[in-house]
C-alpha cells in the first residue's frame, strides 16, 4: 500500500501542502485586510468655486459635483467658495447642481473670502455655511446693462431687437424675474430672518452679521467645514480630495480679456449676479469684468 | 474515447463561463446604485416669477387750451433734457396749435458753455415777455438773481412755470458745472444735470437729496415707483396712479400744495419710509421731482399720459398779462430780443437794439 501513496504524501501530506498554500494566499490578502481595517471609511471632496462665475469655472465645479455624486467613495462635499458671482444663467446652474448634490450627501460651504451674489446663490442650498468674521456673504441681486437703443450703423439686422435684445421695459421685467428667482431661492434655502424685500436691497454682510441673520450658519474655517461634513456623513476616518477650479489666464487676472471668451465678448445685454465693478465700454454693451475679477 | 473527453471538457468550460458571466451580471445588477434622479426641485422657480407688465397704452392728448400760447423751454442753462426726451409732451402742445420754443440763450444750441454766457437776465426776460409758459428741466448752471426776479414777475403776471428735476448724483454735489461736449455729437445731454435749487426756493419749493424707491409695490423696479394724486387738483384729473423713475422728493412752503405723492416710498439718502411729495403747485408754478416720465418710453405707462395732458393744459391755460416781466435797466425797449419766429427755425435772432453783451436766442420750432 505504501507504494501507492501519492505525490502529496511524498512532500509531507495534504495538511502541510494546504497549510503552505493557505499561508501564501493569506499573505497575498494581508494588504487588503490591513487597508480595510486602517484605511479611510470614505472621502470628503473639497470643490473649489473660486473667481468670477462664468461658463468655464461653473462647468468645472459642476463636473466635480457630478463626480462626487457618482463616486461611491465620496460621501460628503465641502465647497470652498471665494467668488463675487458672475453670469446669472451660470449661477443658476451652479445653484441647481449644489442643490442636487445636497440631496444625496452632506454639503458644506466654507466661505474663504466672499460668497457674494452668484457666489452666494451657489452656496445657498448647502447644509451649513461656514464663515469667518471678515468673509462676506450676500449681495442677493441681479444687474444688467441697459439695452442700447437703435441698431449700429455698420450692421444689417433682421429686426429691431436683434442687436438690442429687448426694449428697456422688457429688460427691466427680465431682471425683475431673475431677482424673484434669486431672492425666492435664498428665502427657501436659508432660514434667514430677512424678508424677501430686505434681501432685495442686495447688501453685503460680514460673516458675523451673516451668521446673525441666518445667511450663514457657523463661524469656522475650511477645516471646520470638512470635519463637519465628515461627521454628517458618519465618517470617523476619512480622506479629503481637493478639486480645483480652472485657473484664470494671467491677462484676465489683471482685468484684460485675451481669450476672446464668448461669454463676455458677445455684443448683447448680459444679466449678472455679480458684486463689484461692472465696466461697460461705450460701444453698445460690450462687457468686461474687471477689478478683482479672479478673487 | 479521446473525442468524448474533449467534448466533455468543452462542455464544462462553456458551463463555467456562462455561470461566471451570469453571476457577475446578477451581482452587478444587485449591487450597483441606480442613477440618481436628475430632477431637482427649485422651490422658487415657479410661475410666479414673471412680473406683469405695467399697462402702457393711450397717448398724450392735446391740451384743451384757448387760443395759441407760446411755451418756452429753457435750454440755456445746460439743461440735461433733450428735445427727444420730452417729445410726447412737446408733440401734444404742438398738436393743439401752440408755439413751443427752445430758449438757448444764444449759444447755438450746443448746450455747452451756457452757464457763463447767460449770466445776464435780459435775454431771458425779453423772451419771457413774449411767452405764456416757461419750462425748466435739469439745469446744470444756476439762475442769476435777475433771471429769478424776471421769472418771479412772469409767474406773478399769470405766466405758467414748470420746474422739473431729477435727483442729483451725490458725487457731483449739485455743483453748477457745465461741460462742453468735445465730440459734439449729442444735444448737450453730457452736462451734469442739476436742480434749479435757487429758482425753486424762490417759489417756496425745495428739491430733496437722493432718490425715492419702493422695494415692494413698484413698476417692476425699485426705482420705478407709483405715485398717486394728493387731493383734488386739475393736474391729476383722470389720474389714478403714475409711474416715476428715479424721482426726488419735494418740500414745499405753506403756500404750496402737494399734487402728486408717493406712499410707502423710501428716500435713498435717509432710508426713511413715508409719503413723499413728488409734484407740487404754488400758484402758477408747478414743480415735479422727475423728468423720466416725459420720455417716449414712459409717457404712456400707467396714467402718465393723463398727467402729461393735464400738465400741458396747465401750461397753455394761463392768463398772462402782456409785457411781463417788465424790462428793467439797460434792456428797456428790447422786447423782441431773444427769439426768431417759430416759422424760421434756426434763423438769426433779433439782436437787441443796444446789443452789446446780451445773449441772443435761436428760435426753433419742432
TrEMBL record, chain A:
<dbReference type="InterPro" id="IPR047272">
    <property type="entry name" value="S49_SppA_C"/>
</dbReference>
<dbReference type="InterPro" id="IPR029045">
    <property type="entry name" value="ClpP/crotonase-like_dom_sf"/>
</dbReference>
<dbReference type="GO" id="GO:0008236">
    <property type="term" value="F:serine-type peptidase activity"/>
</dbReference>
<dbReference type="GO" id="GO:0006508">
    <property type="term" value="P:proteolysis"/>
</dbReference>
<keyword id="KW-0720">Serine protease</keyword>
<keyword id="KW-0378">Hydrolase</keyword>
<feature type="domain" description="Peptidase S49">
    <location>
        <begin position="101"/>
        <end position="144"/>
    </location>
</feature>
<dbReference type="InterPro" id="IPR002142">
    <property type="entry name" value="Peptidase_S49"/>
</dbReference>
<keyword id="KW-1133">Transmembrane helix</keyword>
<keyword id="KW-0812">Transmembrane</keyword>
<feature type="domain" description="Peptidase S49">
    <location>
        <begin position="161"/>
        <end position="235"/>
    </location>
</feature>
<feature type="transmembrane region" description="Helical">
    <location>
        <begin position="12"/>
        <end position="34"/>
    </location>
</feature>
<comment type="similarity">
    <text>Belongs to the peptidase S49 family.</text>
</comment>
<keyword id="KW-0645">Protease</keyword>
<dbReference type="Pfam" id="PF01343">
    <property type="entry name" value="Peptidase_S49"/>
</dbReference>
<protein>
    <submittedName>
        <fullName>S49 family peptidase</fullName>
    </submittedName>
</protein>
<keyword id="KW-0472">Membrane</keyword>
UniProtKB/TrEMBL annotation, chain B:
<keyword id="KW-0812">Transmembrane</keyword>
<feature type="transmembrane region" description="Helical">
    <location>
        <begin position="12"/>
        <end position="31"/>
    </location>
</feature>
<feature type="region of interest" description="Disordered">
    <location>
        <begin position="318"/>
        <end position="366"/>
    </location>
</feature>
<feature type="compositionally biased region" description="Polar residues">
    <location>
        <begin position="351"/>
        <end position="366"/>
    </location>
</feature>
<keyword id="KW-1133">Transmembrane helix</keyword>
<feature type="region of interest" description="Disordered">
    <location>
        <begin position="171"/>
        <end position="193"/>
    </location>
</feature>
<keyword id="KW-0472">Membrane</keyword>
<feature type="compositionally biased region" description="Gly residues">
    <location>
        <begin position="332"/>
        <end position="343"/>
    </location>
</feature>
<protein>
    <recommendedName>
        <fullName>GATase domain protein</fullName>
    </recommendedName>
</protein>
<feature type="compositionally biased region" description="Polar residues">
    <location>
        <begin position="172"/>
        <end position="193"/>
    </location>
</feature>
Amino acid at each position: 500500500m505504501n507504494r501507492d501513496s501519492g505525490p502529496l504524501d511524498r512532500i509531507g501530506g495534504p495538511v502541510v501542502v494546504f497549510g503552505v498554500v493557505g499561508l501564501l494566499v493569506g499573505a497575498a490578502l494581508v494588504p487588503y485586510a490591513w487597508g480595510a481595517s486602517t484605511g479611510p471609511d470614505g472621502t470628503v471632496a473639497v470643490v473649489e468655486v473660486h473667481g468670477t462665475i462664468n461658463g468655464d469655472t461653473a462647468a468645472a465645479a459642476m463636473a466635480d459635483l457630478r463626480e462626487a455624486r457618482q463616486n461611491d467613495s465620496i460621501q460628503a462635499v465641502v465647497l470652498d467658495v471665494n467668488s463675487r458671482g458672475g453670469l446669472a444663467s451660470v449661477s443658476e446652474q451652479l445653484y441647481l447642481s449644489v442643490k442636487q448634490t445636497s440631496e444625496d450627501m452632506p454639503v458644506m460651504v466654507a466661505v474663504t473670502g466672499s460668497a457674494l451674489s452668484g457666489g452666494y446663490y451657489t452656496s445657498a442650498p448647502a447644509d451649513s455655511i461656514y464663515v469667518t468674521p471678515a468673509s462676506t456673504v450676500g449681495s442677493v441681486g441681479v444687474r444688467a446693462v441697459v439695452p442700447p437703443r437703435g441698431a449700429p450703423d455698420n450692421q444689417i439686422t433682421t429686426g429691431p431687437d436683434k442687436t438690442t435684445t429687448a426694449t428697456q421695459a422688457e429688460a427691466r421685467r427680465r431682471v425683475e424675474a431673475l431677482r424673484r428667482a434669486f431672492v425666492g431661492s435664498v428665502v427657501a434655502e436659508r432660514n434667514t430672518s430677512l424678508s424677501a424685500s430686505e434681501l432685495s436691497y442686495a447688501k453685503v454682510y460680514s460673516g458675523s452679521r451673516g451668521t446673525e441673520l441666518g445667511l450663514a450658519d457657523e463661524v469656522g474655517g475650511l477645516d471646520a467645514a470638512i470635519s463637519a461634513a465628515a461627521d454628517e456623513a458618519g465618517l470617523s476616518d476619512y480622506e479629503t480630495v481637493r478639486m480645483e477650479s480652472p485657473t484664470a489666464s494671467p491677462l484676465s487676472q489683471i482685468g484684460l480679456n485675451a481669450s476672446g471668451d464668448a461669454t463676455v465678448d458677445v455684443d448683447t445685454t448680459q444679466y449678472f449676479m455679480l458684486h463689484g465693478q461692472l465696466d461697460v465700454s461705450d460701444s453698445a454693451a460690450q462687457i468686461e469684468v474687471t477689478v478683482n475679477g479672479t478673487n | 474515447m479521446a473525442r468524448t473527453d474533449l467534448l466533455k471538457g468543452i462542455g464544462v468550460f462553456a458551463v463555467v463561463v456562462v455561470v461566471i458571466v451570469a453571476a457577475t451580471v446578477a451581482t452587478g445588477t444587485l449591487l450597483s446604485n441606480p442613477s440618481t434622479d436628475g430632477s431637482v426641485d427649485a422651490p422658487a422657480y415657479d410661475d410666479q416669477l414673471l412680473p406683469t407688465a405695467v399697462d402702457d397704452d393711450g397717448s398724450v392728448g392735446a391740451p384743451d387750451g384757448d387760443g395759441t400760447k407760446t411755451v418756452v423751454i429753457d435750454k440755456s442753462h445746460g439743461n440735461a433734457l433733450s428735445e427727444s426726451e420730452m417729445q410726447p409732451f412737446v408733440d401734444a402742445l404742438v398738436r393743439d396749435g401752440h408755439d413751443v420754443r427752445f430758449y438757448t440763450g444764444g449759444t447755438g444750441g450746443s448746450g455747452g458753455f451756457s452757464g457763463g454766457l447767460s449770466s445776464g437776465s435780459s435775454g431771458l426776460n425779453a423772451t419771457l415777455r413774449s411767452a405764456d409758459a416757461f419750462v425748466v428741466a435739469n439745469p446744470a448752471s444756476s439762475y442769476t438773481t435777475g433771471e429769478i426776479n424776471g421769472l418771479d414777475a412772469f409767474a406773478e403776471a399769470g405766466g405758467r412755470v414748470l420746474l422739473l428735476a431729477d435727483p442729483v448724483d451725490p458725487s457731483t454735489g449739485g455743483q453748477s458745472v457745465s461741460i462742453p461736449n468735445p465730440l459734439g455729437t449729442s444735444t448737450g445731454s453730457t452736462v451734469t444735470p442739476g436742480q434749479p435749487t435757487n429758482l425753486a426756493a424762490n417759489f417756496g419749493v425745495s428739491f430733496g437729496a437722493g432718490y425715492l424707491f419702493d422695494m415692494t409695490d413698484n413698476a417692476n423696479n425699485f426705482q420705478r415707483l407709483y405715485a398717486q394724486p394728493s387731493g383734488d387738483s386739475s393736474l391729476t384729473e383722470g389720474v389714478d396712479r403714475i409711474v416715476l423713475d428715479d424721482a426726488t422728493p419735494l418740500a414745499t412752503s405753506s403756500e404750496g400744495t402737494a399734487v402728486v405723492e408717493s406712499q410707502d416710498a423710501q428716500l435713498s439718502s435717509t432710508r426713511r419710509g413715508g409719503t413723499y411729495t413728488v409734484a407740487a403747485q404754488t400758484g402758477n408754478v408747478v414743480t415735479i421731482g422727475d423728468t423720466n416720465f416725459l420720455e417716449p418710453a414712459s409717457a404712456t405707462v400707467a396714467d402718465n399720459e393723463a398727467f402729461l395732458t393735464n400738465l400741458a393744459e396747465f401750461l397753455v391755460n394761463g392768463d398772462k398779462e402782456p409785457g411781463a416781466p417788465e424790462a428793467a435797466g439797460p434792456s428797456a425797449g428790447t422786447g423782441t430780443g431773444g427769439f426768431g419766429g417759430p416759422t424760421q427755425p434756426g434763423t438769426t435772432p433779433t439782436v437787441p437794439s443796444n446789443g452789446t453783451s446780451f445773449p441772443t436766442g435761436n428760435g426753433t420750432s419742432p
